[in-house]
Amino acid sequence: MKTTIAKKLFLIVIAALSVSSMVGCTRILGISKDEFRGGVYYPTCLVDADRALNDARTAGKAKECPDEFKALQDQVDSAIKVHLGCNTDGACKMARDVVAKAGTLTCQPRPAAEIPAQKPAPAIPAPTANISVAPSSVTKGETAKLTWTSQNATNCTIQPDIGVVQPQGSMDISPSADASYSLACSGEGGTANSATNISVVAPPPPAPKPAPAPEQLCVTLNIEFATAKADIPARYHDELAKIANFMKQYPQVKGVIEGHTDNRGGKAYNQKLSERRAQSVKNYIVKKFGIDGSRLGVKGYGFSKPVADNATEEGRQKNRRIVADFGCVQK
Known about the structure:
Number of helices: 9
CATH class of the largest domain: Alpha Beta
Shape: rod-shaped
Order of helices and strands: HHEEHHHHEEEEEEEEEHEHEHE
CATH superfamily of the largest domain: OmpA-like domain
Radius of gyration: 74 Å
Helix content: 25-40%
Strand content: 25-35%
Number of domains: 3
Strand order of the largest sheet: 4-10-9-6-7
Number of strands: 14
């Protein structure tokens, strides 16, 4: 009987030692059977560390402080390895450190992520405007040229009285009085303005009409004679009357009566004949019309100043003459 009991106790001890060799240090240390991880029993300190990490994860620390959270997780894994190496005390020390840190887990300040600088939007050029007029002064009724230019503009107007225009252009203007023209242009970059002035002067008064030139009256006398005669042909009496009236109307008039002959006869004869012809005309005017003889001179030239060919009868007729120029007077 005693032998049988002894055998049973021996078998129980052998079984206990076998179980102990199968489950490692955990069974020897007497861990709680209610706690396990991955099918392997752990001491309570490691379970507490796992719970602390889980609570921190639930609180969002895994995302808020990923680096610090991962360091605690790695520390728990290391503690498990230490425990499995049969250093449960060391493992629990590490686990308790994890529990303490997980409850007050804070993140180290991290450098702010560098935000790439945004490229500035390209600047929109401002519009320009310029307007001018040439000439800047005109006489009323004359025209001037208005010229304008702009850049970076889509809409332009000119005032007064012109309105919408193209960004560049020119036109003729004829203002009736002094005027100021303004150019306003707009575009995506804003607005621009320019102005120019023109003065208008009254036209000069019309130049006075020149006084009419005084009318002049010019009188000449030309009488032809018969061959070798000094008598005045009757057909010239009316003309001599006109000469006399002219001299009466203008007392300042004087004249010289010149006598001429053709070339038939000698020189001395013709000289005397030319003087008689001139004297005959003077005597007629003085005696017939009462003209002062001092106003008439006489001179004979014989045949020295022919006006036509003495080789023909027609030419000789023209050379038998007297001529007189009484000048011109203003009427």
